[in-house]
Design goal:
This protein has 186 residues and is an all-beta fold. Helix content is 0%, strand content 42%.
């Protein structure tokens, strides 16, 4: 036996349709540059491996007409690989960026470095010459129109420490894509 209960229109359950915006987020590709400013002084003289650093974005970063990374976004990271100065070479360090905190407090992991054209190594240049050598250049006949040139000698001075001053403008380069699903709207 089958029993049938009549249901009135008042008792029927109607599913509620919720309007959800279709937003899958935006992928910020690896290799993207983000302009930032240092929030503190960072020096190879007193910062060791693992020293925590903080940078703040100086501009809005837009993709597809959406402000993905607003101004004043905080980027946190640490000093990775400090090399002390030696004779002939200045000190160097790498700074790895691991987290982004939007102005509303939302946090996202990121992977990047403070960018330099030397494989993201800050510092590490040759130190100044310790001596200069005078070298004559003859133009035409010997003794007539001689130019004396001074060039660096073979020895170099002791290298110096590398410093990023507080408020110094730098660039972060993303080494991995970041999926941004949280954006701020006004």
């Amino acid at each position: 036996m089958i029993f049938c209960c009549p249901v009135s229109a008042e008792d029927a359950v109607v599913p509620v349709q919720i309007d959800v915006r279709s937003y899958d987020g935006v992928e910020v590709p690896a290799g993207t540059f983000i302009p930032v400013a240092s929030a503190q002084e960072i020096s190879t003289q007193y910062c060791q491996d693992g020293y925590k650093v903080r940078f703040t974005s100086t501009n809005d970063l837009y993709m597809h007409e959406t402000n993905i990374i607003p101004v004043n976004t905080v980027f946190l990271g640490y000093v990775e690989g400090v090399h002390d100065p030696v004779v002939g070479t200045n000190a160097s360090m790498k700074i790895k960026i691991i987290k982004m905190i939007l102005p509303d407090g939302f946090e996202m992991p990121v992977q990047g470095y403070i960018y330099t054209s030397n494989n993201n190594l800050i510092g590490g240049e040759m130190s100044a010459p310790a001596e200069w050598v005078k070298m004559p250049h003859y133009q035409g006949n010997i003794g007539i129109n001689t130019t004396l040139q001074v060039r660096p000698g073979r020895t170099r001075k002791m290298g110096s420490h590398t410093v990023i001053t507080s408020g110094e403008d730098r660039l972060i380069i993303l080494t991995d894509a970041v999926k941004v699903t949280h954006t701020l709207t006004n």
